[in-house]
Amino acid sequence: MTTTTENSVDSLKVLCGTWNVGAFQPKKKVEEGETLDLSGWIKVPDVDFIPEVVVLGFQELLKPTQGVQKPRTLVQMENSNKFIDITLYDNWIPHIQANLKKIFPNETYTIEVVHRYFGLGIIVFKRSHSNVETQVLHSATSPESSLDNHSSLSYEIKSISIGSVGTGALGFIGNKGAVAVGLELDIGLREPLKPCFIATHLHAFPGLNNFVERNEQVNYILDTLILSKIEKLESDKVVSVNNGKEDWKWIFSRQLSKDLYSKVQDYDFTFIMGDMNYRLLQKKGERHHSQVTNFVEQNKYDDLLVYDELRHIRSQKSFREVKKNPEENLNQPQDVISRDINIQQPVQNVNQTSELLFNEQFINNDFKKSWELVNTLMDNNPKKLYNPFLGFSESQIRFPPTYKYKTTSKAPFIDYDYKTYGKPVFSNKRIPAYTDRILFRVQHPKLDYDNIQYWQTYNKSVIKVKRYGTDRRLLLSDHKPVSASFVIDWKLLRKYNDKFPPVETSRGIILELPEDPEVNKKEGENETDPLISSSDNTDFTINPIYIASMKIQRWIKKCKTLIVNVIICTCLLCYLYLFQYN
Prior knowledge:
Blueprint: E1 11-20, H1 26-29, E2 53-59, H2 64-69, E3 74-76, E4 83-85, H3 86-103, E5 109-117, E6 120-127, E7 134-135, E8 149-150, E9 157-166, E10 177-185, E11 195-201, H4 208-224, E12 226-241, E13 244-252, E14 261-263, E15 269-275, H5 286-297, H6 301-305, H7 309-315, H8 319-324, H9 365-380, H10 418-421, E16 436-442, H11 452-462, E17 463-470, E18 482-489, H12 490-495, E19 503-504, E20 510-511, H13 544-581
Parallel strand pairs: 1-2, 11-15
Antiparallel strand pairs: 1-18, 2-6, 3-4, 5-6, 7-8, 9-10, 9-12, 10-11, 12-13, 12-14, 15-16, 17-18, 19-20
InterPro entries: Endo/exonu/phosph_ase_sf, IP5, IPPc
Keywords: Membrane, Transmembrane, Transmembrane helix
Domain Inositol polyphosphate-related phosphatase: 10-494
């Protein structure tokens, strides 16, 4: 087989997944000895795709009352010095490990991180390497299917950092917020490769006020999230853990050193995944619900995504502007068309902007009114529609909405009937929406995020999405899980430290950032130099006073809102009491 960029040692393969499990706890619901079939979620696109890192994010691991009682339960892993969250570990690790073994029968994945904060959780698995060439069995194939030899760098983990931030009740409780993991991977150069993974759960409910609150939460998370390093120390003896051998242990570092703390902007690239709760710009009612389901039944996902809040806020364009200049659609780069397990027929390409799919055809005036409300808010207070996802890209969505579905309390919690599997059964309580998403961003101080065409294309040149899909079969939650397979060309990322290369869009248009005459490459610099030097990182220095002030401001704001609501409710109750008494 010819070696491609995706299969060379210049690329890192990553599998990311997110799922709001609706407080489902397998330890209590699944019979002992049984295993949940998660192969549709932990799914790879090709037979030769062996992820080096598997990162799975969870939301609503516990009921709200349980989460408050046990925000964290850290214990020492058996036969190891790693510290893990036992609640997350006991419920999900056995099922994930069984599925990984089924999908990759000749591979061993060791547990690196099991981190939970209230109902939020994140698990990181790392592929173990040996001197023997290994083989991978695709999750959608049978044991008799073709196998492929594959070898790559070991990508040894040099350090791990973890962090969490709450944005829920009173502005800081962890029923909403984010958990994060930052890695340093050895790629054979002086500077390690540093990916950051964020699992988030944002404010719920439809409506413009809730829409604005979600945007503020994302901005707050990215600005205040601090990751603390867990140091790697050599152990006295080799310890066998998870069918693999390790000669080191992890401990939580207590040293006050600037090298032990990092922000999201300190990493080479970031993946943010989770139940972001962005809705479709629809009104409540059975008629609107049926309109959405009709789109889904006809596989008209592009038409449906016209009304997606997240696409709208990330477009940096109002609907009015695009409608005035529809010819701009022809000059914008196309999103990557990813394979989805549920799509049988190829879908035709559609014209779109760099971030937002637009369709000039509307079914009725109610859809137009939704956009007019958003644009009115934009005109009145543009700051409220600030794009918190600036620099982040997302692959083309070729699957139905992931929320809100009917659930079942009967095992095996999976619908194996293809007829039902092909027709999503939505709950009538909410308008279906794409609440569960995975976004990615290459980070560099010199990358101009104002040039939306360039960074969008550069993101997708460095990070290629091989699959972005969902698994409709799982019925244990009102959310469907979402996963994405990424191939990261870190060689390209390392090659251009100061000057970014010209990139070509899918339409053959060459995009190039203007040269900065003041920025000259220093003599003797090469690809082994760090991507982000200390001089370039001054803007992202951790300022405890600034972060503390932001948290205090958010807490005061939420307290003011709570006090006003309490006063209003008290006055209303007093009025009703006096009125009834009289």
